Amino acid sequence: MVSFLDLNGIQVDLSFEQGTFPIEPMHVLVLAKFQNKWLLTKHPKRGIEFPGGKVEENENLTEAAIRETLEEANVKIINVEWIGEYVVHDEQPFCKAVLIANVEQIYENQTSFETEGAVWLTNEELLNSNNLSFHMKDTGMQAILEKVKKYEGKWND
């Protein structure tokens, strides 16, 4: 397990083993690559980040990941796979599942309502971007990106 304070000073615990936390994940964070570029979104206030959000009623983690990625980036994903989860010990603690996926289709002409749309970055651009949201810069994200290196063969590049 990786424990750290995020950039807002809040305790976060990250695990790559299922069932580590007593809190069920009700949020998702989706990591996908296509043609050797990461799929991110541009949030109007926070900046560039991986797509994700809350699991809705009667929805599982995979369904939430597919919906959130479509809503935020206008991208349809498939082959969604759980790789980890983390608990943010805020006033009301919550757990977020970390998922990887393949890109099936990119909808160029749709208008995104929740973000300013998809942003595609290479590994180098992701590591050197000045426009990342705060949670993209913390110790947990570094651990997640290190973990997904072993999944490089799964991306549909």
TrEMBL record:
<dbReference type="InterPro" id="IPR000086">
    <property type="entry name" value="NUDIX_hydrolase_dom"/>
</dbReference>
<dbReference type="GO" id="GO:0016787">
    <property type="term" value="F:hydrolase activity"/>
</dbReference>
<dbReference type="InterPro" id="IPR020084">
    <property type="entry name" value="NUDIX_hydrolase_CS"/>
</dbReference>
<dbReference type="InterPro" id="IPR015797">
    <property type="entry name" value="NUDIX_hydrolase-like_dom_sf"/>
</dbReference>
<dbReference type="Pfam" id="PF00293">
    <property type="entry name" value="NUDIX"/>
</dbReference>
<comment type="similarity">
    <text>Belongs to the Nudix hydrolase family.</text>
</comment>
<feature type="domain" description="Nudix hydrolase">
    <location>
        <begin position="21"/>
        <end position="145"/>
    </location>
</feature>
<protein>
    <submittedName>
        <fullName>NUDIX domain-containing protein</fullName>
    </submittedName>
</protein>
<keyword id="KW-0378">Hydrolase</keyword>
<dbReference type="InterPro" id="IPR014078">
    <property type="entry name" value="Nudix_YtkD"/>
</dbReference>
